[in-house]
Structure formats: structure tokens, C-alpha cells
Specification:
Length: 356
């Protein structure tokens, strides 16, 4: 006779098996859900990173375009650029940002108001920073033409010099998106980007510690720009030396998970500036050629042009018929063809080749 306990035992075993199966299913479900959450969060993080990079790229491109427009349109010194904004008011103006022929700070913020821009921000919500070669500063007194080289050294993320501020390859200016705050190499605390209204800035975050403005953390480039110790400090730039800027991102060689430099450094080269500036100068010459018979020699340039010695770097060649001329600029390969247009009674630029 079968014991009545056997069915109960079998039922108990089956029940336990079902419970174990249910528990295993729940565990697997939790693992899958957890993995899904991690995956989705990573996708969201990647999407956020991509959006931040896009915003940074757009801001840098707009800033570069505005600076080149400024260089091309300066009334008396084409090719020049404004001094950096020292106190975060968005402007480049006397006393606060330059005195005589000298910019107040070597590295400051982009003067977005002076450039006619909106309040540009990078992907981290920070305003852009900026530095310019002293020879290209709008208040400089030395001549500026196509022979003048930039004075800023730029290194790649490995520390190799790609533009030498001591020679012919130096860049004219750099625009920098600082990115989020981090702990600079050699420091214990994160960068301090604060200011206190009524103490060291006003309600608009304009720094008020005028001696110097950098005494306010918000106007100190070291709280925004980064350093690779014993190699390059983006907050400490010296024109005409190897002390310039390093392109980010750079990670710590001893700890690859740690970001050392997250600055996005965007150079503006001599070629960038002189391509738009020689176009401006070709336009100036075009306006001087007012008859169907061009002169054998280049017409006299305006006083501001000769003050910047453009007459010594421009080559002018009249065509055989006297209705065309070719214009070049030393040491560039660029050339402009000018031609008399009888239908309009004026000179037009019909061709442009080469670069600066």
C-alpha cells in the first residue's frame, strides 16, 4: 500500500521546484532589466556627450567666423583682432582690456559683444576663452601685412609642437572651449569658477577686482583652462615662445580614466586671417582702378595701407590691353585678376587663385 506521504512529498518537491524556477526567472529578469538600464544610461550619456560636442563645435565655428570678419573689416588695420575680454563683460575696450599697445591679459574671454555675437557657450555652458598674438592685436603699433607671422605655439595631445610661435608657423589666435571644471594636475581641489556679487563681481558676473581682474576666480583662466605639468599650461601663454597651448583631450598617462585637459583649442592661422585680408586689400585696389585704361604702376594706396607697409608686399602687373591687372601678395601664392567692366563702368575681380 502506497504511503499517503508520497504524493504530499512529490507535491512539495514540485512546489519547491516551481518556486526555484520563479526565483531564477525573477533574478534573470532583474539582470536583464539592470543591463538594459545601464545600456540605456550609456546611450543617454553618449547622446549628451554628442550634443555637448555639437554645441561646442558650433560655438567655436561662429566665434572663428566673427573674428575673421573683424579682421577683414577693420577700417585702418585689416588683419587685426581685438584684445581678450579681461573682466567677463563681453567687450574689448580701453583701460579694462587694453592700454596703449598692450592687451591687459594674454588669455581672456572672447569679446562676444565687440564681435557682434550672441552670448556663445560651449557644451558645458561656459563662455569661450581667447588669446591673440600681440602683433595682430587691434591696438598694436607695428605694421601688419601678409608677411607677419603668428606668435602662438600649439602642441598636439602628445605634446608635439604643430605650430611654433618662435617661427613662421605660429598661429595668430586661439579660441578655447573650457568644458566642465576638473582638478588641474598638481592641485587637490576642483577649479573654482565662482564670484560673489557685491564683493568681487556685479550682478551680471562682471569681475570687479580690477587690480587685477584675475583675482576673481571667475576671471582667472586657471579655473577654466587646464595644464599638463612640466609640458604646457593653457592658462599661462607667452607670445613668441614655446609656452603656448596644448590641444585636448589629454588623459593622465598613469591613470587613463582621469581627464587632464578637456579644453577644446581652436587655432586661427595666419592663412585664415590673410586669406580674408588679402581679399579686402584686392577690393581696396579695385576701387582705385576707375578708368578703362589701367595705370602702368599700382595706384597709390590709402595712408593706413602704407602705414602697414602693404605697398611693399603687393605686386601689380597691368595687362597688355590695359583693361586687366594681376595682383599678388608676398609671400603668399594667392593672386587676384582684376578687369574693367564696360557695362558697369567699374573694375571687378574676375578670378582668385592660390592661398596665403
Amino acid at each position: 500500500m502506497r504511503s499517503p506521504r508520497v504524493p504530499r512529498l512529490r507535491a512539495s518537491i514540485a512546489s519547491a521546484s516551481r518556486q526555484r524556477g520563479a526565483a531564477l526567472f525573477i533574478i534573470l529578469l532583474l539582470i536583464v532589466v539592470s543591463a538594459g538600464i545601464v545600456f540605456v544610461s550609456r546611450l543617454k550619456s553618449a547622446a549628451v556627450d554628442l550634443d555637448a560636442q555639437r554645441k561646442t563645435a558650433v560655438a567655436l565655428a561662429e566665434a572663428k567666423s566673427a573674428l575673421l570678419g573683424y579682421a577683414a573689416s577693420d577700417a585702418n588695420k585689416p588683419g587685426s583682432l581685438p584684445c581678450p575680454d579681461a573682466n567677463n563683460d563681453g567687450e574689448s575696450k580701453p583701460i579694462d582690456d587694453y592700454s596703449g599697445a598692450t592687451c591687459v591679459v594674454a588669455v581672456g574671454r572672447l569679446p562676444w559683444k565687440t564681435l557682434g555675437l550672441s552670448d556663445l557657450r560651449d557644451g558645458a555652458g561656459e563662455r569661450l576663452w581667447y588669446a591673440v598674438s600681440p602683433k595682430f592685436a587691434a591696438n598694436a603699433t607695428s605694421p601688419l601685412n601678409s608677411t607677419v607671422a603668428g606668435q602662438i605655439t600649439v602642441r598636439d595631445a602628445n605634446g608635439n609642437i604643430v605650430s611654433n610661435g618662435q617661427g613662421a608657423t605660429g598661429v595668430v589666435a586661439v579660441i578655447i572651449a573650457p568644458g566642465p571644471a576638473l582638478i588641474r594636475q598638481g592641485q587637490a581641489a576642483s577649479q573654482d569658477r565662482s564670484c560673489t556679487a557685491g564683493v568681487n563681481c556685479n550682478a551680471m558676473d562682471v569681475c570687479t577686482t580690477a587690480s587685477p581682474f584675475t583675482a576673481t576666480p571667475k576671471c582667472n583662466p586657471a579655473n577654466y583652462l587646464d595644464v599638463v605639468v612640466a609640458l604646457e599650461d593653457n592658462a599661462d601663454f607667452q607670445a613668441g615662445t614655446l609656452n603656448g597651448f596644448i590641444l585636448g583631450p589629454v588623459k593622465d598617462v598613469t591613470d587613463p580614466t582621469r581627464m587632464v585637459v578637456n579644453d577644446a583649442v581652436f587655432p586661427i592661422t595666419r592663412r585664415d586671417v590673410m586669406n580674408v585680408t588679402t581679399s579686402r586689400m584686392a577690393g581696396e585696389l579695385r576701387a582705385l582702378l576707375t578708368s578703362a585704361s589701367y595705370p602702368m604702376t599700382m595706384p597709390a594706396l590709402p595712408a593706413w595701407a602704407t602705414a602697414n607697409q602693404w605697398d611693399t608686399v603687393m605686386s601689380y602687373a597691368r595687362g597688355m590691353m590695359g583693361t586687366t591687372a594681376t595682383l599678388g601678395f608676398s609671400p603668399c601664392s594667392t593672386a587676384y585678376t582684376l578687369q574693367w567692366d564696360g557695362s558697369t563702368g567699374s573694375t571687378v575681380i574676375t578670378a582668385h587663385s592660390g592661398t596665403c
